[in-house]
Amino acid sequence: MATNKDRAFDVVVVGGGPGGYVCAIRAAQLGLSVACVEKRGTLGGTCLNVGCIPSKVLLQSSHHYHTAKEELAAHGVKVAGVELDLAAMMGRKEKVVADFTKGIEFLFKKNKVAYFKGAAAFTGPNALTVTGAEGETAITAKNVVVATGSVSAPLPGVEIDEKRLLSSTGALALAEVPQSLVVIGAGVIGLELGSVWARLGAKVTVVEFLDKILPPFDDEVSKQMQRLLERQGMAFKLAHKVTGVAATKSGAKVTVEPVKGGDALEIAADAVLVAIGRRPYTEGLGLDAAGVSTTDRGFIPVDAHGRTNVAGIYAIGDVVGGLMLAHKAEEEGVAVAETIAGQAGHVNHAVIPSVVYTNPEVASVGKTEQQLKAEGVAYAVGKFPFLANSRAKANGDAQGFVKILADARTDRVLGAHLIGPQAGELIAEVAMAMEFGASAEDIARTCHAHPSLAEAVKEAAMDVAKRAIHA
Q1: DSSP string over 65-133
Q2: Of 91, 165, 371, 446, which residue is least crowded by CB atoms under 10 Å?
Q3: Annotated active-site positions, please?
């Protein structure tokens, strides 16, 4: 059993986020002596503490508030005097986060993972120092896994104060609802947090440098989602660049200009959220002392098995680039742990789903139409609207569609793109089908329960062969 009194381990994982703590637990399950070093003071990384989990709590709570105010009457439920208790909403968010972080500590104890609270720094390829509240501790490891994640990318000239000029961290902890909010960046983080405050009463304007929201997603999905969010009251300034952000006595002022040239526009707001992406975090890690290479953007290059250029040092998650998603980091963490233990760890990066937890949700896996066209791949499209799905209609939640892309010759599923209720859950079916190399016909001929939202996936798969029944 490894404890904090031990100083030599088979594996030391630097970073206790989704990739790091999962890697540590899996390595321990495989019989290795394992330590995890985390300097935040709580486990779970950005995702659990100031990212995925608290944002989903607020998305759910704000959705309940909006539903009570705007939607329950259509179901014959009359609710009068609906009030927002933002402090209680934030309190619930904090409790959920605290419960989860304590849960990971329990899992560490259960799996005999030594947990060091402090900042780790390499002193050599197999040696690190951990600097914490009790001073410095030297530890060694046969294998080190770097899982230090990412931080919000800064916007040049903007000094985040987390009061008026916000990163995603500050946008999760506002003490009151701003009357107006400018979101810089129309990616996942910007739209999710913009949605939270829009539902709670803020006037939200989203500024995006590119000419579409959700840039990596399928074009049809992006266009439809923009229309739906505009109906909810969010405004968009696409193909605009931010040329200035200044704090004022009452809030902030954002200056924007069309990317292709034109007159500048000033937008006044109570708060500004900078959500232009994330960058790898390796500050103070001492990678040079270990001889680990990085790219000019700060990412750590790895091979298909997570190995860096230094034997015995691996890297996973956001710090290696690719999709910056918690579940991608988890899969890489498991694969690296299994590789270290002599097993055949592997991640299929072509079948990692992405989800936007707005309302309706957006989910995607595999190739977009634009990618297939660029690659010259002949493909067939199957689509089915939730408006024609009986469960969605019964629920009163029938916005969006399911779209499946399949190889025109083999019928193998190449991608799927959803807007609609529980899209983040429904995408798992297609991801599993793709992992097993299934065809659209395989999904179409699999019996789905009725009435269920999943039938929309089945019908979209049927539509690839132009034999959908209900549309």
Answers
A1: HHHHHHTGGGGT----S----HHHHHHHHHHHHHHHHHHHHHHHHHTT-EEEESEEEEEETTEEEEEET
A2: 91
A3: 450
